[in-house]
Amino acid sequence: MKKIELNPLVLVSSALVLIIGAFAAGNTYGGTLPIPFVKSVKSADFSSLNDIYALMQRNFDGQINDEKALDGAKAGLVAAGGDPYTVYMTAKEAKTLSDDLTGKLSGIGAEIGLKNNVITIVSPIDDTPAAKAGLKAKDIIARINNEDTSGMSVDTAVSKIRGQADTKVTLKIVRTGTQEPFDVTITRADITVPSAKWSMKDGNVAYIDVSRFGPDTAKLVTQAATELKSQGATKVILDMRNDPGGYLDAGVSVASQFLDAGKLVVEERTGGKSISKLTASGDNTLRGLPTIVLINGGSASASEIVAGALHDNKAARLVGEKSFGKGSVQEIKNLPGGAELKVTVAHWYTPGGVNINKEGIKPDTEVKLTTDDYNAGRDPQLDKALEMLR
Predict the structure, then answer these.
(1) Residue 103: how many CA atoms within 13 Å on its side-chain side?
(2) Same structural domain for residues 177 and 281?
(3) Which residues does 2 contact at the CB level (< 8 Å), separation at least 6?
(4) pTM
(5) The domain containing residue 261 runs over which residues?
(6) Same structural domain for residues 256 and 161?
(7) Strand partners, 246
(8) For the chain, percent of residues with pLDDT exceeding 70
(9) Which of 221, 249, 352, 355 is the most buried (most CB within 10 A)?
(10) What whole-number distance in Å separates Cα of residue 308 and Cα of residue 360?
């Protein structure tokens, strides 16, 4: 059974949204829930649901979609637990969750944001339709299929630009230095976006940006660590800003890059009792290098686990803003027809014994990134990390 740690609520709060889709994850894959699953609940009488259904059939002035009615009843039953992370997902929602986690999505392959209150290309992703069509960073999207984007939110723009592979979308682009706006028609495609990217900064600083903890993350971060260290990296910045989480084992693997084998990464507790302690594997290419971890309010779940593990084990300092604060672990149970139940089964604690649920992790050095900074292309958080490492 594979565990994943994530907060889907963060997905809509990120400053940047990939046009190919916002990323998500769940928290523990595997297992099939026995049906009927209420058979052991002796005190509950669910016959009243049938009574309500019958009354609706006889009295409702409209049509009832049986499938939607059943999905609604299931979702309501799960929501009665009062836990925002325990949810019933239809087959379509479950597939979207899985696709998002693996980075397999359909669209044009560009990252957009709201800069100076206009929809703007932050960066096209290499070797995607957006890059091949010539879109550039700072391009303003004035219209989407003849619809004016004035006052449009990033989420709305994303939903209009995304679409099935082999379909087309036309964008009216306003580019600095170009007198007239121009149209670009782009054919959407299926795109897989890697969960991590890396580069060298300041000559000897390994910069590793992890956008989610997907099935490729452990391999990519290991590759990054090996390549950057061979290029002379003696210091590290691990950027997990706006990272909503993902597979728990990927988080443990990333933390293991910085820790001695056997060091505690995270502890899971149910009912206050410890049920699992996950420790570093010893694949620690970056162990001992001065390290800064960047976090913000969009850093959640698995990214918080990694930040907490490195902080509590004194392997890194944290810079940025307080993280989101999701300290629970979910399992995903497969249901007939492709639906899934995501249910909270435990809460996790940092090596220092802290559960950050709702509270978040506070950085050692707080640095704000304001709207003005974002609009101007400034990154004071990254600048501060580089300054501290110098």
Answers:
(1) 19
(2) no
(3) 28, 29, 30, 247, 249
(4) 0.81
(5) 196-327+347-389
(6) no
(7) 5, 213
(8) 89
(9) 221
(10) 10
